[in-house]
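Support case: protoporphyrin IX containing FE complex. Customer-provided input:
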Amino acid sequence: MSVYRWLDERLDLDRLNKKFMRKAFPVHHSFFLGEIALFSFIVLVLTGIFLTLNFEPSSRLVEYRGEKLPAAYASVLYIDSLPFGKVIRSAHHWAANIMVASVFLHLLRILLTGAYKRPREINWILGLLLLGLTVVLAFIGYALPFDAYAVTATQIGYGIAKSIPYLGDWLAQLMFGGEFPSLRSLPRLYALHVLWLPLLLAALIGLHLLIMIKQKHTQPRYAEEVAPGKVLGVPMVPMQATMMGILFLLYLGSLFLLAGALIAHPVEVYGPPGTSTPVLKPEWYFLWLYGLLQMIPSSWQIPLPGGAAITSEFIGGVLIPGLLGLVALLLPFLDTRRTKMRYLELPSQHPMRTSVTVGLLFFFFVATFAGWKEEFGMTNAQLWAMLVFIPLGAWLATYVLIRQIWGKEG
Ligand code: HEM
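Agent response - structure generated as follows:
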């Protein structure tokens, strides 16, 4: 008896095959963005397993090559000395960058094509949670090598967590094990980074994909012309699986080429944490937040009852991003124009939504630019004027341009 028949008798594989393996996947390049995010997560877990085997999550001082160093920092030097150690650590770093970028671009494609609308509101909300978790996971990853960069960057995040009125101390306790840096910080951050957050992310990604399979993809525009009302696409097995396999191999090849050519975050360049704070900029995806923090003077304080206060850190690090997140969460319930979304909407046919998205992107660009406030010699007043008027200008110009060229109302 063949292995397939043996398993089929017990698990009814034929039924499973008919139900899932014949699922139609639309062929459209923009649908690969979610898959790239998925590949990145898989690679992060695999490369992360190698790192955990050799990493020591502790800031206690140990003797390494004749020097007294924090154990975590020394263990990263040790990982770098292993065969392929540097490349695997570098691949882990770049995969995290690619994951953040692909999740964000995937979100943009969902936003610009209206795929967040009924009945896909749950997947939109799950997606926002996935984006938030991905960014928090990446942020914690930076703390682990415990070099001067890690400690300085994590202190900014620690300050933001602590700034939340009434909840700050509790959140700092939960995420950092209390004060940062302290002996309890690294074990706590490590447990979150290698266990709790990846588990949560894996469960939410699974749910996200199950819902996507159940609801079926929105259909690309060509499907409406070729076979209106029908779900067009290639079956999961063998065609979609083969395409995904090829894409995964291309992904792996490019990632390791990048990881080998540009070794990421060489800890010895920053050195172990010392008494002086190094001048540094956070990763590109945190620069807009860093820029906002630079633009808000510490004099912006509103006292609250019980000795708490709304501080500049809270406004830049929690309030503004939180408001953006809230509007994003509510979007499918605010934009209820065409119900039961089946076909992807063209950005050109929705000038208002497209132009607001462009305006928001410019908001992020200007906030990111504010991260170089000192280098460009900009004042806060200039930056605030830019942050208000450039996105507004971009929104208006895009709206007028789309209406001029395509002439449709959104
Ligand atoms: C870890 C992060 C994520 C992973 C691994 C992931 C994965 C995927 C995959 C593989 C698909 C099917 C292919 C595609 O439509 O691109 C998909 C669809 C979808 N995703 Fe995500 N996603 C993530 C984050 C997000 C985010 C941040 C959002 C939006 C806030 C989102 C909203 C959606 C929606 C609404 C669909 C259905 C799209 C349609 O039917 O056209 N996802 N996701």
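The radius of gyration is 24 Å.

Case will auto-close in a few days if no follow-up is received.
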